[in-house]
Specification:
Blueprint: E1 2-11, E2 14-19, E3 25-29, H1 36-48, E4 67-76, E5 79-88, E6 94-97, E7 100-102, E8 114-117, H2 129-143, H3 145-171, H4 176-215, E9 222-227, H5 242-263, E10 274-279, E11 282-283, H6 284-287, H7 290-312, E12 317-321, H8 329-339, E13 346-350, H9 358-361, E14 364-370, E15 373-377
Parallel strand pairs: 3-13, 3-14, 8-12, 12-13
Antiparallel strand pairs: 1-2, 1-4, 4-5, 5-6, 6-7, 9-10, 10-11, 14-15
Helix pairs in contact: 2-3, 3-4, 3-5, 4-5, 4-7
This protein binds adenosine-5'-triphosphate and magnesium ion.
Residues 12-13, 30, 32-38, 59, 61-63, 322, 349, 351 line the site of adenosine-5'-triphosphate (ATP).
């Protein structure tokens, strides 16, 4: 998949930018604060309908403006496509695919496939469980509109259920029939998510192990295991059926009810899932060195790339934000190896071109970023 053009209007520090990137590797360079990451962020918003670093669109719109607009033309194996995102203060975000209005994010996500890799992603092995859930959710949302739809539903149900629990804990009692309505919905949608995550992790784990074996200098084996919260008490199951998940979910709700009512928050469900990462059987979070956790992070990113490719038959666009400078020479070379594939488009940001390995530098197109513009260097 190739991004052929990108248009930004009143997005971050760009009043109006039209960019026709190279089909291979584009290097965006410039000093801190020049607007390099903002370009990648625009691609992320077009791919996922929301930013990976700002929770609110108010942060994305150029200061003093009321609306922003993004557009991209992409070449996919099945032909050309166009995605547009328009946001205006106080209104719902609008999406268009190939010129036609699409009512929800689930209709847009997956058109432009991206793998984003920045300094935060390097922390995935050691960071909070939310980072690993996000990793899974972004992968699965890009290959399955149903997943994104159910994820959105789940968040809505969870919010409603938490509201009820909160008011119950304040009032000192709950309407059990009312709670049961939310329990049933939470379990129905939540079990679907758990099942889909379990299937995906089984395959991601294979990919990550293989990638890791190539990356690691020592003889170490990376294991990636799904840790669904509702099955933790049962000691986990490698491939739980939908029925097993549902039963475990209900019994967890039963077990945790007093605590939920006391604390006024939902304690069981896929919003508390995690991925367990192990190296030769030892938990990476507790025992991993900085180098080991970075290699694991890189392996997870490689796994993401091949998973997306296998599921969609398309080559995702790689977005590498300042990450080359964070890696040591051997890991940098491994990542650079991915960028040497001519079928793969990539955008790399850096303050210092010296971080680019020579093999990559030779086949890159360079753009100097600054003053709300990109200028191609000869
Ligand atoms: N909503 C906004 N409106 C206008 N300008 C903004 C907005 N949000 C951020 N900026 C500007 O964008 C710039 C930061 O852009 P960006 O994060 O892309 O920089 P960068 O080139 O990636 O820098 P670094 O090398 O430090 O990562 C800052 O100058 C900031 O003031
Ligand atoms: Mg940046």
């Amino acid at each position: 998949m190739i991004v052929q053009s990108l248009v930004l209007k009143n997005f971050r520090n760009y009043g109006g930018l039209e960019f026709q990137p190279a089909p291979g590797l584009s290097v965006l360079f410039g000093p801190n604060g020049a607007g390099k990451t903002n370009i990648l962020e625009a691609l992320v918003v077009l791919a996922l309908t929301r930013s990976n670093r700002a929770a609110r669109d108010e942060e994305l719109v150029s200061m003093g403006q009321e609306a922003y607009y993004l557009r991209t033309s992409i070449e996919r194996s099945e032909g050309p496509g166009k995605v547009e995102v328009a946001w205006e203060k106080g209104r719902r975000k609008q999406f268009k695919c190939n010129g036609a209005v699409v009512p929800s994010a689930a209709g847009v996500v997956g058109r432009l496939l991206v793998v984003f890799f920045g300094p935060d992603e390097l922390q995935i092995a050691k960071g909070a469980p939310a980072m690993r859930r996000r990793y899974l959710d972004i992968i699965l949302s890009q290959v399955s509109p149903t997943y994104l739809h159910n994820l959105t539903q789940y968040a809505r149900i969870l919010g409603q259920r938490n509201k009820l629990l909160r008011s119950a804990s304040e009032a000192g009692g709950v309407d059990l029939a009312h709670l049961k309505v939310w329990d049933d919905q939470l379990v129905e949608v939540g079990s679907w998510l758990v099942r889909r995550r379990a299937e995906a992790v089984a395959r991601l784990a294979d990919e990550a192990r293989a990638a890791h074996a190539e990356l690691a200098s020592e003889k170490e084996t990376l294991s990636v295991t799904y840790d669904p919260a509702v099955l933790r008490k049962a000691g986990g199951l490698a491939t739980p059926s939908r029925e097993e998940i549902r039963a475990a979910f209900f019994s967890e709700l039963e077990r945790l009810r007093p605590a939920e009512l006391a604390r006024g928050v939902s304690l069981a469900g896929p919003h508390r899932d995690d991925l367990l990462l192990g190296l030769n059987g030892a938990d990476l979070r507790d025992f991993g060195s900085q180098g080991q956790t970075r290699t694991a992070a890189l392996a997870l990113k490689f796994a993401e790339l091949s998973f997306l490719r296998q599921e969609t038959g398309e080559e995702p666009v790689m977005l590498l934000d300042d990450v080359l400078s964070e890696l040591d020479e051997s890991r940098r070379q491994a990542l650079a190896g991915l960028l040497e594939d001519d079928r793969r488009q990539a955008f790399v940001t850096t303050t210092d071109e010296a971080f680019l390995p020579a093999t990559v530098a030779a086949r890159s197109t360079y753009y100097r970023v600054g003053g709300g513009r990109l200028v191609q260097e000869e």
